[in-house]
Design a protein that fits this description.
118 residues; 5 helices; two-stranded antiparallel sheet
């Protein structure tokens, strides 16, 4: 927190644990956070499923997917930001904020869950 200079108190060391514990105390908070970060919507604390499911079905019927292969020479594992612009005002693009420039995996290798998050 101070660039490696000076002592760190117990309170400072446990600050992230306290924040994480607060999020986990109410499961709806982290479910909403997960939905928001992945471009989704959390349907919680309601008995009216019709309106949210209409929204879901409208998105499913109008779903498009685009991808690209970056033209980079060095796969160094660093995070690369991306942005998507749409010319039509009535279109909403759900995108990730970027990707990690990881080299192609050899046959049989698998990525770990934490390596997939952007």
């Amino acid at each position: 927190m101070r660039g490696g200079v000076g002592e760190v108190s117990t309170q400072q060391a446990r600050a992230s644990e306290t924040a994480e514990g607060a999020l986990r105390a109410n499961p709806l908070l982290w479910l909403r956070d997960l939905a928001q970060q992945t471009g989704g919507t959390a349907i919680v604390e309601t008995n009216d499923w019709k309106a949210p499911l209409r929204t879901v079905m409208a998105e499913v019927r109008t779903y498009y997917e685009a991808s690209y292969v970056p033209h980079i020479a060095q796969y160094d594992g660093k995070f690369r930001k991306i942005s998507v612009r749409v010319d039509r005002p009535d279109v909403i693009a759900h995108t990730s904020s970027g990707y990690f420039a990881l080299p192609q995996l050899k046959r049989g290798q698998q990525m770990l869950a934490y390596e997939l998050l952007c």
